[in-house]
Amino acid sequence: MNRGVLRWILAAVPFALSLVAAVVLLVVYPGVMVRISSAPAALALGVGFGISAVLGIGFLTATRVEKRRQQLLTSGAAQAKAEHIAFLARLDHEMKNPLTAIRAALAAHGIEGSPHLQVADTQATRLGSLVGDLRKLSDLQSRPLESEPVDLGQTVGDAVQAVQTYLDQLGSKRHFAVHFPTVPWRIPPVLGDADLLYLAVFNLLANAAKFTNDGDSVEVRAGEAEGWVWLEVADTGVGIPDADLPQVWDELARAANARGIAGSGLGLPLVKVVAERHGGRVALRSREGEGTAVRIDLPACRPALVRPTSG
Amino acid sequence: MSQPIKVLLVDDEAAITESLTPFLERSGLEVRTAPDGVAGLAATASWRPDIIVSDVMMPRLDGRELVRELRQQGDWTPLILLTKVDATGERSAALDEGADDYLSKPFDPDELVSRIRAVLRRSTPGTPPLSAADRLIAGDLIYDRRSRRVWLAGREVQLTPRALLLLEYLMGRPGEVHSRDRLLSTLWGFDFPASTRAVDHRVAELRRVLADDAGQPRYIETVQSLGYRFVAKVGRG
User: Where are the alpha helices (DSSP H) in B27-102?
Assistant: First the structure.
């Protein structure tokens, strides 16, 4: 018998007993009356207690029901995520042999001098890297992370330098401004995988550079609050249309005004995965035509947790 | 003219063997194929290929079982496994079990040919490669593969796990230039563009811990715009 039914039966027991007692009393003592006298204060106290007890039990039950509902929702989301990852693995697995065969067949035939075969080869390569990237993204959700204190200031410095070198090569210019407070103390490090955090920060900066024009500004700022370190990359770029905002964190999602700009639609999902793997979260604000700000919140590394990087 | 390189291609997918065989032959190699690990073992014994290129997932005997079986028999025919690039655990297991290299599908067919030539350049027929030795010694530097411990001039040094993996990989393949991209996909399991800085950081860590001067390297040399090379002579312990 399920627990719900059992509970109702249990709840009905006092009533059933009182029913039996009433019948017995009616038969044994017909016409007998009992008068109960009470001080009004005691009566008020009794009534108050009774109502509180009923309300209290009601609230307790409601809280438990809500908690259970949340648990079901969370496990549903976790399951959907697991299924999504499994799907990407299958897709990758099923695509890699055909793609290998296509590229080998084209290479065996020789594509020199045939624009058509060159198109086929380029597109097979592109398809391969697309599927591979999706797979890499899903692997990031489960791969083991290194854990060492990471100075985000240094990570940002390196990433800004890398993006600037790239822009210089293109002869393009952005105004970069980095603000990491050092007073009254420096931003604490975060505990995590330095390489993946760099990848996330680099992606944010590369996006900022990609969706801005010559002379635009990119600002990187950071702060700490209640055990968290936050990092925001903001730009005065093209922004994201309102209609596209809900999908920005989805794989392969690209905004309507991003179509002319090269990209995979995997940058922001990667940032999100990296942040979440570190126990953090992400947020994005954007106005089309004005710019975009993406923020990562990461748990700060407490001094007690700072260990030597080795071991 | 020297004999063409004999390649045994082991894959259960006919589309792969049928397309790769003519390509490899066009590149001047002699090719035979086998549809699974059991047939691969038999062909290795009868045909004595110079190198085996094997898929991983196959019926009867898979690619990793094939490597293990060969190595247990004392057969050190060089072998390249065609494994996924992204399964970090799978890859290091492949290298640990005696595969000489690996390449993930889908790959650039030309890359396979250059990988075949590179593996053959560094291997001596019939002997285990350095990368399979339990202990590697380069002057003052000792690396124990089993315990994953490193000693410099008799003193044990501490390295992060990725620096350790990088050192093991470089010491096992001395004298070869390894590109950052290749090191990244081999040892980190990810090759997102722009993440090669990760490799530079670990090389910097190795140099710091091993007191190696980048300008006058005893161990790790930066090969301008190409990658890194382990320059010291490496022996087995």
Answer: 37-47, 63-72, 88-96
